[in-house]
Design goal:
- The protein is of the alpha/beta class.
- The chain folds into two domains: 179 residues, Vaccinia Virus protein VP39 (Rossmann fold, 3-Layer(aba) Sandwich), CATH 3.40.50.150; 95 residues, Orthogonal Bundle (DNA polymerase, domain 1), CATH 1.10.150.
- It has twelve helices and seven strands.
- A seven-stranded mixed sheet has the order 3-2-1-4-5-7-6, sandwiched between helices.
- Strand 1, helix 2 and strand 2 form a beta-alpha-beta unit.
- Helix 1 packs across helix 2, helix 6 crosses helix 9 and helix 7 crosses helix 8.
Length: 309
């Protein structure tokens, strides 16, 4: 069943302009939308593409794949897999790669997906509901130390230890946690101080979602793959929604935006820079006012340099 929940694409014009900017008004190359979501970026890209242009989109979410099948444009194709697989594209074949990270509004707002503590639903949080382990299944067996490490590392939560102990104690007393409401209530009881305006379960839910979907590992793999598939002059555009993601993207672009010297061979020619950092863009005040979920977004843009012969 198609979801009726709505999604407002963040930095829509800015992202598409950055992606296609080097390719002219009607680009004819192959572009990659690594996170189709509900198709906001993809549909805008297709409006700008020339008749010989191509758009290949990726997404793990079966609901996103269902939405993508509504696009009948022959220049468009969708792959039901994560953007870590974009490295399967031919080397140097892409004129641009767009990665819009995070969770879409329909995913957050659907109680059945288990992403949000605002709704009571099954504690799932998988991007791809057709495979893999849910959060509830993982929490049913994980040890205190494992749970605390995940919540501390991916949620930057000060009270990761008490939360982990509370989860295991509850499991031993009454059985595994099965719903988002149960987890949110348990976390609220373990977090002794709360940040103003933030639900005490925010960091824990973020951490478990990132972990269960291996989001940061997939981002690292996709960034590395982008270097191989981007043609010289091709753009890499990444929209992040929290500091862990943005730090990875920032460091990746910085690492490849300079020549690398081998200290073991001081007279050897350096490895050339592979990216040219172009821009860092935040949503405008108007966009944030219209869509509060845009407030944490950061978009970074880089361009693939010429590959030496």
């Amino acid at each position: 069943m198609q979801s009726t929940l709505q999604h407002t694409t963040v930095l829509l014009d800015e992202a598409v302009d950055a992606l296609l900017g080097a390719a002219g008004e009607s680009p004819s190359g192959t572009f990659i939308d690594g996170t189709f979501g509900r198709g906001g970026h993809s549909r805008r890209i297709l409006l700008r593409l020339g008749p010989e242009g191509r758009l290949v989109a990726f997404d793990k979410d079966p609901e996103a794949i269902a939405e993508a099948t509504r696009i009948t444009d022959a220049r468009f194709s969708i792959r039901h897999e994560g953007f870590r697989n974009l490295g399967e594209m031919p080397a140097g074949s892409a004129a641009g790669v767009l990665l819009d990270l995070g969770v879409s509004s329909p995913q957050i707002d659907s109680p059945g997906r288990g992403f949000s503590f605002r709704f009571d639903g099954p504690l799932d949080m998988r991007m791809d509901t057709t495979r893999g382990q849910s959060v509830a299944e993982w929490l049913a067996d994980a040890e205190v130390g494992q749970i605390a490490e995940v919540i501390r590392e991916y949620g930057e939560e000060r009270f990761a230890g008490p939360i982990a102990k509370a989860i295991v104690a509850r499991r031993q007393e009454r059985g595994p946690i099965g719903t988002t409401a149960e987890l949110a209530e348990l976390v609220a009881g373990a977090v002794r101080t709360r940040e103003q305006g933030q639900n005490p379960a925010t960091r824990t839910f973020q951490a478990l979602r990132i972990f269960i979907n291996a989001e940061l590992e997939e981002l690292q793999q996709a960034l590395e793959a982008s270097l191989r598939v981007l043609a010289p002059g091709g753009r890499l555009v990444v929209i992040s929604f929290h500091s862990l993601e943005d730090r990875i993207v920032k460091q990746f672009i910085a690492q490849h935006s300079k020549e690398v010297y081998d200290r073991r061979a001081p007279f050897a020619a350096p490895q050339p820079m592979r990216l040219n950092a172009l821009d860092r863009i935040k949503p405008s005040a108007g966009e944030v006012a219209a869509n509060p979920r845009a407030r944490s977004a950061v978009m970074r843009v880089a361009e693939r340099t010429e590959v030496p012969a």
